[in-house]
Write a structure and sequence with these properties.
alpha+beta, 7 helices, about 30% helix, about 15% strand
Length: about 220
């Protein structure tokens, strides 16, 4: 199988040295489960593949690595910092055409233009797409949180609001990653604010970074999915 991958030009698709290491680990594991060009115990191979992690290059001297959550999949670090979790995803322009495959055929709806009444089917397909994006965001957040071996830091910049005369953190935007784990962090209501913020005048900027300490509730990473 390695020979077929080489013949198809597989190495040309690799961008970095760490990708080469990942490929070598995959083929080494595949060789242990391969029998006459086949993998008779496929479930066992898949289970073993889940436990294989790519190691950073031994020659790397940097103590901090910046990468996307997609790039971090399969890696582990002593400390992981996920920044700007209160930011919402960039809004997409309305699609000209929305569709989904169904057992009975293709479910398809075009956009209706600016003055026409919006098609319920077009709206329905948009809601399905939004649910899929929300599920993908939760999956990426779970991936990021489970990359940490010792310490995990979730950071965000939140607004504040007055509630019954008490200044408290406003809930994060619904489309943000922080909204997905807000309840799991035990912080749906008032949060602890640093003394410098409590003494700040009401006219000060509420959006600059503040210290945020959610309630000390122990939750497993699985609750973030």
């Amino acid at each position: 199988m390695r020979g077929a991958w080489l013949a198809l030009g597989g190495p040309a698709t690799l961008c970095e040295a760490i990708d080469i290491d990942a490929t070598e680990r995959f083929f080494d594991l595949l060789a242990k489960h391969e029998l006459a060009g086949d993998v008779p115990e496929w479930p066992a191979f898949v289970d073993a593949l889940r436990t294989v992690y790519v190691a950073p290059e031994a020659t790397e001297t940097a103590q901090v690595q910046l990468m996307t959550l997609h790039r971090a999949k399969g890696l582990e670090f002593d400390t992981v910092i996920l920044p700007a979790l209160a930011r919402e995803s960039r809004r997409k322009d309305p699609e000209i055409l929305r569709w989904r495959r169904r057992p009975q055929g293709l479910l398809l709806a075009p956009t209706q233009g600016q003055r026409a009444t919006e098609d319920p089917l077009y709206t329905y397909l948009g809601l399905i797409g939004a649910d899929e994006e929300s599920a993908e965001l939760g999956r990426l957040l779970y991936v990021g949180c489970t990359r940490a071996k010792r310490r995990l830091h979730l950071t965000a910049v939140l607004d504040v609001r007055d509630h019954a005369g008490v200044r408290e953190w406003a809930p994060p935007p619904g489309g943000s990653a922080l909204a997905r784990c807000w309840d799991a962090l035990g912080a749906p209501g008032p949060a602890t604010v640093a003394p410098d913020f409590a003494a700040a005048p009401r006219g000060s900027d509420p959006c600059r970074p503040r210290r945020f300490r959610p309630s000390p509730v122990r939750r497993s990473a699985r609750q973030l999915r």
